[in-house]
Structure to design on (466 residues):
């Protein structure tokens, strides 16, 4: 274990606690567990408002060590252990989202009854402008970014961040923000209780992170925390988990793949032989005007539309922004059509539910490239959509065999040693009218730095096809 105990006052120390943000309990000292992006932002923020800050990271050489020294030179960094050495009755325990609360090094202090918090909780105790909160197993980044684009198109001064892009505490640097749009993970919500969004949504729930949660019920319970407070609730009427979220004493709006039942609800329905997005009985826009592949993305647009309209954005403004939105990289991203075969990059499909949605939204025969780290996932939900839509599967990564076990009796399955091999095999199999879809249903860390690295490698390999 090493300690960086640097002299000097904290950067920006002229901002005092009582002038900037009155945290609950008025702590004088903070312990931050984990020096990732959110840990760094938290250290800078707490140091700036006058707290004495210690940061612990299990790595001997954390990647953001130099940034911490530059941005918060008064912070003490302890490397190689998470065992807390300095603690007092007025200390604050901040646990970064990537560190499970079950980590053995935290057991001793948690047994004392210390309540761990996260950066989103700190944000919630300080934020003054309205917040829109978005979580879900799949689609939350698309909805978050699209909603941000809609609000900007409406002339709102908006800040977008959280689990995507900018850590939440960095968003507080701009005092002119009118509204915040936050993508929140289940990990972030575990340590959040003061957040009170003007409107919040759980887009969907699919088994994910089962290596972190004891059960599916625990995972669902963490997602449900986004609905704390008294704001409006946007609910997915198609998702069985919605029954666990409903609060009939709150204003509830629903979105669905079916036609809306109530005037305030959103859904899909046919009109003049075309599929349209509806609110109540009002047609909003035709589905074929949207530049996103798959029906699950139509639901993402419905969710963003519902969120925006419920904070006062007019329909014509929303439609213009939706029409101009091209989607995000690695999320059902069309790469090329080569010899009549479409190649689609859905590397962000890191769980089974995402891959089921990706496959279900395609209307042509699919050659599926999947595999990676399973995170204790159950692959049996793939069976139905694979039987209906997939003509062959090419599997990569450490848990390829688990996927093969689930689907090999339904379609031909091939194993590939890497992405280049997978693309080569797909090229041999594909015929005009087919779709080659990378949607791994797994995490990427066995072979790649992250899902972006995996998607970029797929793009590179597809670009090499002649």
């Amino acid at each position: 274990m090493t300690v960086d105990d640097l002299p000097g006052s904290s950067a920006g120390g002229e901002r005092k606690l009582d002038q900037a943000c009155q945290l609950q309990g008025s702590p004088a000292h903070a312990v931050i567990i984990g020096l990732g992006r959110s840990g760094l932002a938290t250290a800078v923020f707490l140091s700036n408002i006058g707290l004495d800050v210690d940061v612990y990271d299990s790595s001997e050489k954390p990647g953001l060590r130099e940034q911490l020294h530059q941005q918060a030179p008064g912070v003490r960094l302890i490397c190689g252990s998470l065992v807390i050495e300095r603690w007092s009755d007025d200390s604050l325990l901040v646990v970064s989202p990537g560190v499970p609360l079950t980590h053995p090094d935290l057991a001793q202090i948690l047994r004392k009854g210390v309540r761990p918090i996260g950066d989103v909780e700190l944000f919630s105790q300080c934020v003054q402008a309205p917040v829109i909160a978005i979580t879900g197993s799949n689609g939350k980044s698309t909805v978050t970014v699209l909603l941000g684009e809609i609000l900007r198109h409406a002339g709102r001064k908006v800040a977008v961040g959280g689990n995507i892009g900018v850590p939440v505490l960095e968003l507080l640097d701009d005092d002119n923000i009118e509204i915040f749009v936050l993508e929140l993970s289940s990990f972030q919500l575990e340590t959040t209780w003061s957040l009170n969004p003007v409107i919040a949504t759980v887009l969907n729930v699919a088994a994910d992170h089962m290596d972190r949660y004891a059960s599916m019920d625990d995972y669902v319970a963490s997602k449900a925390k986004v609905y704390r407070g008294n704001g409006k609730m946007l609910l997915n009427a198609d998702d069985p988990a919605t029954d666990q979220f409903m609060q009939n004493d709150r204003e509830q709006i629903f979105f669905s793949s079916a036609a809306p039942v109530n005037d305030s609800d959103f859904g899909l329905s046919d009109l003049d032989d075309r599929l349209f997005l509806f609110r109540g009985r009002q047609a909003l826009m035709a589905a074929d005007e949207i530049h996103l592949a798959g029906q699950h993305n139509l639901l993402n647009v419905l969710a963003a539309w519902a969120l925006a309209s419920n904070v006062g954005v007019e329909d014509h403004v929303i439609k213009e922004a939706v029409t101009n939105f091209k989607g995000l990289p690695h999320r059902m991203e069309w790469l090329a059509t080569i010899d009549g075969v479409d190649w689609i990059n859905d590397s962000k499909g890191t769980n089974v539910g995402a891959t089921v949605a990706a496959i279900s939204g395609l209307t042509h025969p699919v050659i599926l490239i999947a595999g990676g780290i399973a995170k204790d996932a159950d692959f049996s939900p793939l069976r139905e959509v694979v039987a209906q839509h997939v003509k062959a599967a090419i599997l990569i990564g450490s848990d390829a065999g688990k996927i093969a076990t689930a689907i090999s009796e339904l379609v031909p399955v091939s194993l590939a040693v890497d992405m280049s091999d997978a693309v080569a095999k797909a090229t041999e199999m594909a015929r005009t009218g087919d779709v080659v879809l990378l949607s791994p249903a797994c995490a990427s860390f066995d072979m790649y730095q992250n899902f972006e690295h995996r998607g970029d490698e797929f793009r590179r390999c597809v670009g090499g096809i002649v």
